[in-house]
Write a structure and sequence with these properties.
The structure is a homodimer of 379-residue chains. Chain A contains 16 helices and 11 strands. Chain A is of the alpha/beta class and 379 residues long. In chain A, the strands form 3 sheets. Chain A has a 7-stranded parallel beta sheet. A two-stranded antiparallel sheet of chain A has the order 2-3. Chains A and B meet through helix 10 and helix 15 of A and helix 10 and helix 15 of B.
Chain lengths: 379, 379
């Protein structure tokens, strides 16, 4: 594996000084890119695309070939883990992910077991190592998983939901069953993420997409608690090539693997999320970046948080919103880190040139912001 | 109109002492009640039910005949106002509300005008006065409207949405058009609510159902600003019958008409919502009631916030969750008010006996809580 040429993203997560604010976009390899749609068409289906390591690698790199993004993220689905548990993941046309065998009763809960990632999730690890090779050290590769609670939502509902009636009914009526599902999921997610690190992932992200659907109190118990269990069990260091001044590999060294937790709709709980032991806290667009920095910035880097719909506006308007976000966060001083991102996945309807405007603006303004900050502090 | 026999709800909103914590439930007249479904079947459709003042009155009173709730809420739809603007409201089977003529371009925006509520919304006012008569002073009647932004979402999207792409695209690309829509809506909502007060509504609620979809910054500008405009224009007092000790009507007196603002997903902005001039702030279940009280309790009453899915649990579990919510809020002391409610509308799948357990528990525990509080403070 090649040494890293651009470590801005990792430095920001470690809250070390950076020359500019790094940026990547959730779902950056996706349907807004024509080249993605072409590869997906060749794969035949979304699941085939996830399960074919060469095609998964191809789409992972597509946005990096278009835009100077500061991180790559493994192309995969958050439901690979429950699929590996044997629940039968499938995609109904126009309806999103579904499971053939949702987990609804005592017997189904008892039968759940954490899968061996080397076995049924081997295709993901193959994708990770293929992508690492293809990246050639351009930017770090992020591995990821759904949070134990978010996986449980899909497992119990059997698909998406707008009221989470099945999973919350179980939570309130049979908390014992819910706890057992979350214990299995916490182990499965930890094993899955550790296997990704082993295969080459240089940072990890836990998507707690449905944590924000929970009530205060239930969130801490049923979403955050299991996330903490996952983080406690993670391999937080890995060996990376050590290079000399000429770029020649002369050995290996231990490096940290930072972990980001993103609870969509979790703005009220940032302090508690930051206390899970993660390195970065993802925030959605309802959060004021300056306030997030004041609340948890000394403890964790902040990742986020432009409304993806800003990318529907004209380039000048996008630049204006990017500037506002950077100004709201303020200049990252020593011990403070910001990774620019959207507050949620990019929309399939985004014009690709909008991303060009955004990435350029974030890089240019954040360099300018640091220059101004430096000249102000040298007065 | 009869004098009020139970003013606990209004007292709590005025942050005056109450013997117990009043409770009502968003969407309390709804599909979880067999008698509601029977009336709706007679009406033929949901819209017919809204537009027939006798049937609207009948369903408004149904939950009060079953449960000792402390307020009634006008049975209507939040989209009556844009319907009166001529957008052509209809309900597609299983798809929720839709508009035949969504507001998507400059010409459609320019053509918008605030309707005269006495004219095209007369059926709502007729329902309000019919319900007031039928209530006979049992409990106060709440009138309501969607917020200007929430109405704009439906008007521009032409129906429900999960990404608000159309309305947010307009907001970010053409803020001038969005501002014009919101100005019309603010005037329309103020006129509509004032007409409801005139017809007999004793409290008002503004449902900002989609405020939480906005980014920080955009929320203040596009949702909260127009809500403040509405509140500034509201008739906040009305004449109510004055009775003597024997209950005989001896004249009239001016009474306050409290206003509640509920932004679903607005927990990060409670201070700003409380500063709109409202009397009560509705909170969803992601908010910690004790923290909400500490943040805005001295300025506004708090309304909320049980997860509606708690009602899927067994009666003992429901009582436990009600107790936890009351304990989290703490005893309402002088200058503090709490109105118990769900954090969102009740689910159509709720067993009716769950509501019995909840209402009884809230009334009994909150009386007990006040007794304990009183004995503790008399030590």
């Amino acid at each position: 594996m090649s040494p890293l040429k651009n470590d801005t993203f990792l430095r920001a997560l470690r809250r070390e000084p950076t020359d500019y604010t790094p940026i990547w976009l959730m779902r950056q390899a996706g349907r807004y890119l024509p080249e993605y749609n072409a590869t997906r068409a060749r794969a035949g289906s979304f699941l085939n695309l996830c399960k074919n390591h060469e095609l998964a690698c191809e789409v992972t790199l597509q946005p990096l070939d278009r835009y100077p993004l500061d991180a790559a993220i493994l192309f995969s689905d958050i439901l690979t883990v429950p699929d590996a548990m044997g629940l039968g993941l499938y995609f109904a046309e126009g309806e999103g992910p579904k499971f053939e065998r949702p987990v609804r009763d005592e017997a189904a809960v008892a039968a759940l077991a954490s899968p061996d990632p080397a076995d049924s999730l081997g295709y993901v690890m193959k994708a990770v190592s293929t992508i690492r090779g293809a990246l050639g050290g351009r930017v770090p590769l992020i591995g990821f998983s759904g949070s134990p609670w978010t996986l449980a939502c899909y497992m119990v509902e059997g698909g998406g939901s707008d009221d989470f009636r099945q999973v919350k009914s179980m939570l309130y009526r049979r908390p014992d069953l819910m706890k057992r599902i979350l214990e299995v999921n916490a182990q499965a997610v930890a094993d899955y993420l550790n296997a990704q690190v082993e295969a080459g992932a240089q940072a990890l992200m836990i998507f707690d997409s449905w944590g924000g659907a929970l009530a205060d109190g239930a969130f801490q118990k049923f979403s955050l608690g299991p996330i903490r269990q996952v983080i406690d069990r993670l391999q937080r260091e890995r060996d990376e090539p050590e290079v000399d001044a000429s770029g020649r590999v002369v050995g290996t060294r231990r490096v940290q693997v930072p972990v980001i937790v993103f609870t969509k709709g979790g703005g009220l709980w940032l302090e508690e999320i930051a206390a899970t032991g993660c390195d970065g806290v993802g925030v959605d667009w309802t959060v004021n970046l300056g306030q997030a920095r004041a609340r948890v910035g000394a403890r964790c880097a902040i990742q986020g948080n432009l409304d993806p719909m800003v990318l529907m506006a004209a380039p000048d308007q996008i630049r204006g919103e990017a500037l506002k976000a950077l100004e709201s966060f303020g200049v990252p001083q020593a011990g403070i880190g910001h990774v620019f991102n959207l507050g949620h996945g990019i929309s399939q309807f985004t014009p690709p040139e909008s991303v060009t405007a955004l990435v350029e603006a974030v890089h240019a303004y954040s360099r300018e912001q640091r220059r101004r900050g430096a000249s102000a502090s040298s007065l």
